[in-house]
Amino acid sequence: MLDAVDAVLVRELQRDGRATFQALADRVGLSRTAVRARVQHLLETRVVRVVGIVHAAVVGAEAIGHVSVTVDGSARKVATAIAERPAVSFTALTAGPHDLVAQVRTRDDAALAAEADHIRSVPGVRGAEVFRSVATVRDTHAVVRELGEVSLDGIDWRLLHELQQDGRAPYTRLAHIIGLSQAATRARVVRLMRSGVIQVTGLADPLALGAAELGGFGLVVTGGLRKVAEAVAVQDGVRYLATGFGRYDIVGQAEATSRSGLVAVLDAVRSVPGVTVRESWHHLDVVKESYAVELPEYPLNGSS
User: Fold this and answer.
1) β-pairing, 100-106 with 213-221?
2) Which of 104, 124, 243, 249 could form an S-S bond across to 221 if both were Cys, CB 3.0 to 4.6 Å?
3) CB of 32 within 8 A of CB of 26?
4) Is 4-45 assigned to CATH 1.10.10.10?
């Protein structure tokens, strides 16, 4: 477990992965030098990883599927094989109606269907059900707002490549890579973040933050779907929520500091008018959680 200061630093990095050491120091009431040392330790020990998450529309990865998998034999072996796919951003072993769950992000429905077929072909997979996400209502690790008109050039693209790998890459290093001044580099990075092209955030180890319990749920809804989804999304502990079609109307993910806390989150979800929890599951072990995507060689809507 982290001490109180480190916990605040991690939360601040989740909110703004490129927050300056001075801004962080002002937040926790320590010197800039002390905060720099603490942040470096958090990064080196992988308590938190600061990465850039590129908007799905920018990379043409707007077809998102939640795949529930049942297996014969070793679930971990199957989950490890599924996690190797670049299109798979999340995989977890679960207790509940299925043996594991995975999230798949692809450019279109045809590609999503192909990924689902690949998952079904993995040795040991007995069945795979796909929930096709239509709208992401809440995601603590991604940009959920609609992307406006934005034109990207090759320099922007190189910055996206670098920020995906290291969201806190210094402007000096980024400037050297793209061949611009630090001021011009900073202006580009700020524009990319403010426009929603990329969100720089901290991916934290849930155990370090005391969020030892993770779970998922599938809901069916009566009444207006969007209104109900927005009411569920604001419940404490809900970290991901998407509407779509398939076995459920809504798929979500929850976190809590304890198993009883996770039960409380699900009870709060059940209390939302119009909601029926069709299924819920407990995440036993997260095998993969990665939000880096394979960028095309050139921007989809810009010049090379």
Assistant:
1) unpaired
2) 249
3) no
4) yes
